[in-house]
Specification:
5 strands; mainly beta; 64 residues; 19% strand; three-stranded antiparallel β-sheet; two-stranded antiparallel ribbon
Length: 64
């Protein structure tokens, strides 16, 4: 299990992402997901996709 010294932070032994959930443990190493544990690319470090229809709009103001 990879830990950052002097903290309780656990990082994935495959991709290095911080694990804030229950890790997948294989051969005494911690992984963020099953894909990483099996050596495949993972998507755990990508931000969650926004739901459709929640797009923010930008308001433009005219100078007076």
């Amino acid at each position: 299990m990879a830990r950052i010294p002097f903290t309780n932070t656990v990082v994935c032994d495959g991709c290095g992402v911080e694990i804030t959930w229950a890790p997948v443990v294989l051969d005494q190493q911690s992984y963020c997901c099953q894909d990483c544990a099996e050596g495949r690319p993972c998507e755990c470090d990508y931000p969650p996709e926004e739901e459709h229809g929640t797009q923010q709009t930008v308001q433009e103001f005219a100078a007076v």
